[in-house]
């Protein structure tokens, strides 16, 4: 997606998630559960570097101009270095795994962008600098409660030229859910057989569903979206059929339903009629995971979160299910949940490396899987 990465980075770093994680000195700290850094001078440096790069990142011609190569090489490397200099506060810990997964992937993507630019893959590096905005969205939307960001820079002239899907994702990244949802409805309504502009109606509709269900838990808007899709006969038939599945899910959605316990969350998952149940489950599980949990509760919650994220792989902007399975293994290794999570992770990894030519899992991945399995034995 082609959004303004720098100011999204800034909000990701300075508001929602505090910072990017770096490696800790403690070998006992499991991956994805390292301490969250505090706001410090390094944050301001990141902000300044990102603002310097922004005009180049979103101008393909300018980014690839040989005259700017030396300047960009210096600035991108500087940004990558700054992500490793953020200091940790051992007193600040987060119980929400989402922040850690997204932050780690976010930092890794910036490091790869630097490496690719230095080896001549300039356009690929630029695409990486643009696409990390998906991590901002995943971080900002993990819980229902939170600030709605207003950014004057989001109204810059070049932002108005973005494709409608990118504009919607930008609004989501700033938790501007109502404007984003309204744009979804307007866009779906505007699609007709003679439309000259190519629009991915399915992805637009699913973004609207994410807003209504997972981000806001708004049954009324979920129904508005379903009806809007069903009424527009210019939309793909499969999407209209999908809208009827959504309506079936909404019909069994009880207003003010208490989803603060695992039995309640499991109940809606078992009643699955569409992706709506998994969206509701993820929203509830992310909130549930912020509580003080026993090993048994934590293990089952991480397994359920992984399964629901896996069900939503084609919709979610960041793939997280394997992160939840792996965290489950590290947190409760020698339990039935640790073993169940390993089995799910193993299935997912095997599937990911299987194609028409068979299954070919890289040696380093095989080793990692063996190490994880030993933890559960």
Strand order of the largest sheet: 1-2
Provide the helix percentage.
55-70%
Tertiary shape: globular
How far is the N terminus from the C terminus? 42 Å
Mean pLDDT: 78
Query: Can you count the beta strands?
Result: 2
Major pleated sheet? 2 strands, antiparallel
Q: From the helix content, strand content and strand pairing, which structural class follows? A: mainly alpha
The Rg value, from CA coordinates, equals 21 Å
Number of domains: 3
Low-confidence stretches: 1-40, 88-94
Assess the beta-strand content as a share of residues.
under 5%
Number of helices: 19
Task: Give helix and strand order, one letter per element, not per position.
Answer: HHHHHHHHHHHHHHHHHHEEH
How is this structure best described in words?
The chain folds into 3 domains: 1-143, no CATH class; 152-251; 285-377, no CATH class. It is 64% helix and 1% strand. The chain has helices at residues 5-16, 41-57, 60-63, 69-84, 97-118, 122-131, 133-140, 157-160, 164-173, 177-190, 201-215, 219-231, 237-251, 262-270, 275-288, 295-311, 321-331, 336-352, 363-376, and strands spanning 354-355, 358-359. It has a two-stranded antiparallel ribbon. Helix 1 (5-16) packs antiparallel against helix 2, helix 10 (177-190) packs antiparallel against helix 11 (201-215) and helix 17 (321-331) runs antiparallel to helix 18 (336-352). The longest helix is centred in the N-terminal third of the chain and has 22 residues, at 97-118. It is globular. The two termini are 42 Å apart. Mean pLDDT is 78; it is low at 1-40 and 88-94.
What brief labels describe this structure?
377 residues, mainly alpha, 3 domains, globular, disordered N terminus
């Amino acid at each position: 997606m082609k959004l303004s990465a720098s100011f999204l980075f800034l909000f990701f770093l300075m508001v929602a998630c505090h910072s990017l994680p770096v490696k800790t000195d403690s070998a006992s700290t499991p991956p994805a559960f390292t301490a969250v850094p505090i706001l410090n001078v390094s944050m301001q440096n990141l902000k300044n570097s990102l603002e310097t790069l922004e005009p180049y990142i979103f101008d393909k011609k300018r980014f690839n101009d040989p005259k700017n190569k030396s300047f960009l090489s210096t600035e991108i490397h500087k940004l990558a270095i700054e992500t490793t200099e953020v200091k940790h506060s051992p007193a600040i810990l987060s119980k929400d795994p989402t922040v850690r997964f997204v932050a780690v992937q976010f930092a890794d993507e910036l490091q790869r962008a630097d490496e690719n630019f230095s080896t001549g893959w300039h356009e690929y590096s630029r695409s990486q600098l643009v696409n990390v905005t998906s991590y901002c969205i995943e971080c900002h939307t993990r819980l229902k409660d939170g600030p709605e960001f207003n950014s004057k820079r989001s109204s810059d002239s070049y932002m108005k030229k973005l494709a409608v899907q990118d504009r919607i994702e930008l609004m989501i990244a700033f938790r501007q859910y109502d404007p984003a949802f309204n744009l979804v409805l307007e866009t779906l309504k505007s699609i007709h057989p003679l439309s000259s502009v190519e629009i991915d109606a399915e992805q637009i509709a699913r973004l609207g569903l994410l807003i209504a269900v997972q981000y806001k838990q708004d049954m009324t808007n979920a129904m508005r979206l379903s009806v809007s899709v069903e009424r527009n006969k210019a939309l793909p038939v499969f999407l209209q059929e999908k809208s009827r599945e959504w309506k079936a899910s909404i019909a069994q959605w009880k207003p003010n339903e208490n989803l603060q316990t695992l039995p309640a969350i499991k109940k809606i998952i078992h009643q699955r009629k569409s992706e709506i149940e998994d969206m509701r489950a993820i929203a509830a599980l992310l909130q549930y995971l912020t509580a003080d949990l026993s090993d048994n509760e934590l293990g089952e919650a991480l397994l359920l979160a992984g399964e629901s994220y896996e069900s939503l792989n084609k919709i979610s902007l960041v793939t997280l299910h394997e992160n939840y399975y792996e965290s489950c293994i590290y947190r409760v290794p020698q339990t039935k949940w640790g073993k169940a999570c390993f089995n799910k992770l193993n299935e997912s990894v095997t599937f990911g490396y299987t194609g028409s030519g068979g299954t070919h899992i890289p040696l380093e991945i095989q080793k990692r899987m063996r190490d994880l399995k030993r933890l559960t034995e």
